[in-house]
Amino acid sequence: MKRILLILSAAALGLAGAKADLAGDIETILTIGGEGAGNEAASKAWQAIADATEEAAFFEVLQAVGKNNLADNWLLSAASVVAEKNAPDVEALKTFLLETSNAPLAREMVLDLLRSTDGEAATKLFAQLRNDPAEPVRRVAVQFYIDEATRSEEAGQKNVAAEQYREALQAARDADQIKTISAKLEEFGEKVDLPKQFGFLMRWKTIGPFDNLGRAGFDTVFPPEERVALDATHIGKDDAEIQWKEFETANPFGMVDFNKAYGMLKEVTAYAYTEFDSAEDQEVEIRLGCKNAWKVWVNGELVFGRDEYHRGMRIDQYRLKANFKKGLNTILIKCCQNEQKERWTVEWQFQMRVTDHTGTAILATNRGPTPETDKVADLKPNEA
What is the pLDDT of residue 358? Predict the structure, then answer.
């Protein structure tokens, strides 16, 4: 009996040691830095993790994804190797996938693994996942509905296909998928109001250009930041008198292009202002796409800003939490253009929409019909 207890104790110590080593190896990978810092130690740790065969190791590694972006690919590839040796239980995969606090990239990997392991189980989850807050997971679910609609269309089931495309459009957030779905629905004779569907803000008041010489405009407090007075005249760049303009965009993705209002300028700053009538007190997300330096205020309070230029733009690039009160709320955005002259730096623009935490549009009660053409005009006194 004593010998059996000793053997069991030794086995327990071995398992504890293995688990401790796994945690240590994961931590080693998490400490890698830029320019190859820590790569040598991480390589050894990666191999040690990849040698693991326990199902629990797969999930423990995935729990670390998202803690250091530089380490994510190391962790995901190690987890993949572990899964090849011992395919995780389907129910365990579903549990991990449906826990939205897990890192999006890790959940996307689990979804792919679930689809290859038990496609039927994955299919049953797509109705839920199409509204998932994690964009990579949501995208896979949306693509499933697009593919299903395509198959229905090819089978001559036009009405079924149309409904599946509508469901996909409700959930889609990526421009390429949105364009694909919209084109299909329009082929079926349906008019798609994308700006309303996604809640893009289409009507603004703009003022500019102010200066951004030496990129100083981002931190300079110009008059609109102190008080938005739509009937005021201000001194802008090169001591020119400037005043507010009315700006309506007909762009299907709500793009507000300052170049249309002020010309192709460099080293300049402009502001856009709008009023959003909320049906109730509510927490919202201000979702912004912009490749210029920007700041956003809601009801006069600075929400966030980002002082960098021309690093690409996409729908929902930035997600800013804000609280709307019932009734009228104000939104002000500052957008700075820098001195670069390359062709890919000419954009001076943004797109913005208001949503809940899943990206579903919240529409203002004072929202007008979607503009059919762009409009840029001086603001008349009675419009201020």
Answer: 87
One-letter amino acid at 253 equals F
Q: What are the angstrom distances between the C-alpha of 156 and each of 147, 162, 252?
A: 14, 11, 30
pLDDT at 133: 87
Counting other chains too, the contacts that 78-86 makes at CB distance below 8 Å and 24 or more residues apart are 78/29, 78/46, 78/49, 78/50, 79/106, 79/109, 80/109, 81/50, 82/49, 82/50, 82/52, 82/53, 82/57, 82/58, 83/58, 83/113, 85/53, 86/53, 86/54, 86/55, 86/58
For Cα atoms 203, 208, 214, give the angle at the middle one, nearest 5 degrees.
130
Q: Does residue 1 carry a pLDDT above 90?
A: no
Please report which confidence band the pLDDT of residue 113 belongs to, taking 50, 70 and 90 as the band edges. very high
Please, where are the H alpha helices in 34-89? Answer: 39-50, 55-63, 72-85
Q: Which amino acid is at 326?
A: K
Alpha carbon distance 347, 365 (integer Å): 31
Q: Is 353 helix (H, G, I), strand (E, B) or coil?
A: strand
